[in-house]
Amino acid sequence: MSSKLLIIERVVDLKKILADKKNRSVGFVPTMGALHNGHRTLIERARAENDFVVVSIFVNPTQFLEGEDFSKYPRTFEKDHEICRLANVDIIFLPTVNEIYKSDDISVISPIKRGYILEGFSRPNHFNGVLTVVLKLFNIVQPTKAYFGKKDAQQLILINQMVQDLYLNIEIVPIDIVRDRDGVALSSRNVYLSQDDRIIARAIPNSLISASKLIMTGERNIIKIETHIKNELKNLQIEYVSILKRDLTQIDQIEMGNSIILIACKVGGVRLIDNLWI
Ligand code: PAF
């Protein structure tokens, strides 16, 4: 059970509190706020598995491209605070941009090839920003375990790779996608969808269900399955439909237990991603 929920803005203060928690496990959930049930699932898992739980809320400017929605990204601190309080979080880490990024900052972590396909193709350097901030946050919090949703599959895979490559002593815990009743994967950006677009967006999870049925009939050919999905998504603006190995390398045939279907589409100007791990 947690004590009173603390809101900490400064790195020195957080480090001081965490130094007193030596020998206790720390579960960490990094977020950009606008918390929804998907985040709640991560937080609940962190709470169940650790002595101490830290949630960071930081809309990270370096992972937004020029012209993206950084300034209008939903900021809902009061609601976020309530979700954290009800979930018995111990600390919300709420730094300012200046607290995390000093001027002339030299610490940039760049992913290699796999950071420039899929999401990284449409959003070049997005993952530099993600990995840089996640590494900074890991160094500040020094968690035992950190929790990430499978919805951001490429992010999860690259963070796992960073942890291995840099020999970080942190366990990354992947958490299944949480969906609304209509099947649409929860995302902080869903608030941008109009009612009509929301109905159109259902085609995305439905196409994944339809693909998994096709796979259950024995189909393994990537091109056939991708074509099937694209057909289901014909009323949406498809950015990519891609079936890859779980390390994001290419395959011709589905490898059961080691493949992933990844989709990005625009619906009414809102970019949505979804995936299925098969
Ligand atoms: O998934 C997110 O919300 C962000 O990319 C993360 C991991 C908090 C880094 O800013």
Can you give a write-up of this model?
The chain is of the alpha/beta class. It folds into 2 domains: 6-175, Rossmann fold (3-Layer(aba) Sandwich), CATH 3.40.50.620; 188-277, 2-Layer Sandwich (Pantoate--beta-alanine Ligase, Chain: A,domain 2), CATH 3.30.1300. It contains 10 helices and 9 strands. It has helices spanning 11-19, 37-49, 77-86, 97-100, 119-122, 126-141, 153-165, 195-201, 203-216, 222-232; strands at 6-8, 26-31, 52-57, 91-93, 145-149, 171-175, 237-245, 259-267, 270-277. The strands form 2 sheets. Strands 1-4-3-2-5-6 form a 6-stranded parallel sheet, sandwiched between helices. β8 (259-267) and β9 (270-277) form a beta hairpin. α6 (126-141) packs across α7 (153-165) and α9 packs antiparallel against α10. The longest helix has 16 residues, at 126-141. The radius of gyration is 19 Å and the shape is globular. The protein starts with 5 loop residues before the first strand and ends with a strand. The mean pLDDT is 95. The structure holds pantoate. Pantoate binds at residues 30-32, 60, 63, 130, 133-134, 152, 155.
In the CATH scheme, the class of the largest domain would be Alpha Beta
Q: Please count the beta strands (DSSP E, at least 2 residues each).
A: 9
Uncertain runs are none
Helix content: 25-40%
Order of strands, widest sheet: 1-4-3-2-5-6
Mean pLDDT figure: 95
The total domain count is: 2
**How many helix segments?**
10
Anisotropy-based shape: globular
Gyration radius, rounded: 19 Å
| Helix-strand sequence | EHEHEHEHHHEHEHHHEEE
Ligand catalogue: pantoate
